[in-house]
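[job 0417] fold request received: Glutathionylspermidine synthase family protein
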Amino acid sequence: MVRLKDIKPLKNEKLEEIGFRWHTDSDSSKYISETLVKITQDEAEAYYNAVNELYDMYAEAAEYVIENNLFFELGIPFNLIDAIKKSWENDVHWHIYGRFDLAGGLDGKPIKLLEFNADTPTSLFETALLQWALLKENSLDEESQFNNVYDAIKENFKRLITLFDDTELFDERYDGWKILFSSIHGNDEEEATTRLLQQIATDAGFNTGFEYLQNVKFDEDGIYDRDENQYEYWFKLYPWEDIAIDEPELATTLSNIMQNQSAIIINPAYTLLFQSKGMLKILCDLFPDSPYLLKTSFEPLKGVKHVEKSVFGREGANVKIVDSDGSVLHEQDGPYGNYKKIYQEYVELNSDENKEKYQAGVFFAYEACGLSFRKGGEILNNMSKFVGHIIE
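[job 0417] inference complete; emitting structure tokens
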């Protein structure tokens, strides 16, 4: 059973002071839980080790997909294949951050990979800042977390210049290159997350700017803000698969920009391979003995309780939990139903005394760097709650 610690919540006014405006869900309930998950140091280290190993497995699997031209199997849009290959070939296309979603890890349950949100993961603001603020508000030891997300991402921004080298070399190699940060206008969560990343990059030493996505200008010679200022790097909190499907001309332009070496896009196009849940099947093929993987197939798992997911999808949309006899136990509608499907062995999430389910999320920025939890029902959707943690 998940062990919990009651805490005094942060008031809405305090949350809004630090830029956190999505604190109340549509049913007027609070999005931030008034409890913390209690974990041990050993459990924290187990999450850390699992995620580092899983990332290495993803990197090996991506190489396998590219070498064997398995883009169709992963549901990758054809108009991004060249961009994916180009970004994979050159280390300057650096993966800044992603988030692994995991079952288990508490109360003796083994850690199992559910999926990897590699391109545009949410809950960064909550994990990096709010967990720290909750400990401070409750006069708890601010060091008693597995959470160095802010500093890890800051160091990873420096690796845009130093790549695999020591980030202390950043200053001597840095030559004033600029990063433009963009999100969709009107989405508080995405804008706050993007502006947080902008602040982290600024703290790392970059010159930065912000422009809403609809105001960014593109041509094959580069990427510009509305004032025609050109940027060497562009961070977009906008999924690659949405660019491919909804903005096909932009997908072509970005591919040409990369080919011409006119700008570097963050997160890189190859993170779409990681983002695709089809990679879960590839991982099972390549690493059949990994303790972290659940059996996954492109066909329904007959006689086995399993979860049906679209290869691209978020917040539990278009997910079904199917019993061993083929009957649907739970399902969630959504906009991703036209994507290719994968079928993953069902695993029971950790639960508390009220039978609420807990899913761990671990951010990765060059290494595993921060833990948090979501709680809800059998399918964690956009009404699930954010839960911080404390190491005891």
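[job 0417] notes: The radius of gyration is 20 Å. The mean pLDDT is 94.
[job 0417] exit 0
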